[in-house]
Design goal:
With 78 residues, the protein is mainly alpha-helical. Helix content is 78%, strand content 0%. The chain is built from three helices and no strands. The N and C termini lie far apart (75 Å).
């Protein structure tokens, strides 16, 4: 009768090991989902540089004042 608790020990330890492995796999899965869902920010063209180019086009007469304002709003809005 005294050996009975000792016979359960490997089963209990195995269960704990299984749970730890299960938790780790779940944690890795959640982390992978977070990385996939995170927006990847690619550096776009610099806003200041775009505005300078638009101003140069406006100064050259390539853009009318209305076109310049529309393009400027588009750049500033994102």
């Amino acid at each position: 009768m005294l050996l009975r608790p000792l016979r359960r020990a490997p089963m209990m330890l195995g269960g704990v090991g299984f749970q730890v492995g299960w938790d780790e796999a779940r944690r890795k899965q959640i982390e992978a989902q977070r990385r996939a869902a995170a927006p990847t920010t690619t550096p776009g063209p610099d806003v200041v540089e775009q505005l300078k180019q638009l101003k140069a086009l406006h100064d050259d007469g390539s853009l009318s004042p209305e076109e310049f304002l529309m393009a400027k709003r588009k750049v500033l809005s994102g």
